[in-house]
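Re: that chain you flagged

S.,

Sorry for the slow reply, it's been a week of failed gels. I finally had a moment to sit down with the sequence you sent. For the record, here it is as I used it:
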Amino acid sequence: MTKVLAIDDDRTVLRMLARWFEGTETELITAANAQEGLEVVRTERPDVLLLDIMLPELSGLEAYETVRKLDPKLPVIYITGHGSSEMAIESMKLGAYDYLQKPLDKEKVLDLVGRAVEMRRLMSVPVAVSQDAAVVPSNGDAMLGQSEAMQRVFKAIGRVAQQDVTVLIQGDSGTGKELVARAIYQHSSRADGPFLAVNCAAIPETLLESEFFGHEKGSFTGADSRRIGKFEQCSGGTIFLDEIGDMPPLLQSKMLRLLQEQKIERVGGNQTITTDVRIVAATNRDLDALVREDKFREDLLYRLKGFLICLPPLRQRDGDLHLLINHFLTVYNARMGKSVTQIEPEAMRVLENYDWPGNVRELESVLKQALINSTGTVITKDCLPEVRCSQQMGEESCTTLEDSSAQDGLGDHMPRHDLSSFIEHRLTSGGGNLHAEATAMMERYLLTRVLRETGGNQSVAAKILGITRGSLRNKIRSLRLSIDHVITVDNDDPDPVSAV
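Prediction finished late last night. Pasting the structure tokens below so you have them in one place:
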């Protein structure tokens, strides 16, 4: 369970926070002063700290210095009252995660804490790089591979981790680009500094510049206070820019200056700010092709390619399929209370003959669903969910697990596994993350239905959905929707075990 520590001398605030976190998967621990709170940091090792600036005897800013010594990776969110926002902004330059202004807003608190918890996980959960699943720590993620292709990736991580250069990771969706970025960070000289992950396709283009570089008060409508950007906030650490190929042209030019000079300016400001950030970028797009189409700056690509790591698709990783299958079965047997020990030969042939367009993420999803469907110690062919066969594979050489759109709710109606039946099944089968799974199921159906309505026109679909085209593109990729005459989807799982 996630632990959040709140330090505030206002008991009303502490009681209010306790109500907001009640019934969630978060345990709230409270302290009325800094000394009491610091003792909790020592003994309880919280995941996030909500820290009031104006505390008696020892202020929040003074306490922060001790917190950084006790736990340098603990995300600190300041709670500020009237007149103390500037102090909180200054503290962010020293490494604080963010700040909240009183009176507190429930949705903002829960959202910010959730994002801070994710950042804590990315920084703290170890990523094992190995050809042996037995060495994976119980609380960690894994990059597993015995194939020559993955051995080259492991060697590349070892060579570049300690070198303070920009890294570009290229690979198909589901191959584990984020895990590579985290492994580089954890084995680098910046491992004690912050690690921030930003998905360039998930943030509206109008907000990307502010998100990256920050803004001054009054610089645009809604900018009611100064904001510290990710690069200024992450100074001394590593920032992971996922989906870098979706970065708009204007931001590309500013990113080039950052890479060349490590200097930025906030939106609406004229002060030049020097940063110290290592950039690890990733993409599943062909950046060289985007350069030829004048959609990506060639000089920026050269800067990003300080060191290039290319992740192989699963179909090119000879011998790794069985290793990964055994790893995921071990993990999900434990999580779901199952005792599956083997896969029948016919079912294994199906898995071996499939070319896995969704790569390791898709394999993980298929195995988890097969475990849910299994009733004994053996996974049979009937336990396997429906996935699409590759167009490269002939019908005679591929045993189809049926069309994935049937199970995932992507027809014109919710199918035989409708949302209600799905929830009932999951409640009886056990396991966690039901909210994420149900939300993903609904989102797949919604996006597919709208894209069918618009004939695959993403601009029109984005307007109907009320989101940006960049966000829609990101969702299409993450859900692996295929836009052709019929909108289809590859199987996915909203509750992944991180392994490649």
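What I noticed first: The two ends are 25 Å apart (CA to CA).

Talk soon,
D.
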